[in-house]
Amino acid sequence: SCVRYGNAREHLTNTDVVFIGRAVRRDRDWFDRTRYYTTFEVQEALKGSLPRRVRVAHGGATNCAVFSFDLGARRMIFAHRDGRALSTNHCSMQRFSEAEYRAAMRSLVP
Description:
Layout: H1 8-13, E1 17-28, E2 35-47, E3 53-59, E4 74-82, E5 85-87, H2 98-108
Parallel strand pairs: 3-5
Antiparallel strand pairs: 1-2, 1-4, 2-3, 4-5
């Protein structure tokens, strides 16, 4: 079961990286066929420093839901960092409006 965040600020505080991007490529893991890697063109980094393109892992045998990102679609991505690797899952998906997240980001910046 996923953590239930009370508001956008709480969600942002518990996420390493947040960005708006467009999915440009999707690959399936050769060993774990339920795990995918999606490459995004980063249009705007809202939290964390990111290059223009990032690869984000999602799905996998230990994840209770497999999902994919539609190629070409603009999405707000919430990811966790493990070293240089980024990953996300259905529990990290956007839960509030983009405006709520932007307002929360302004309140987090000193």
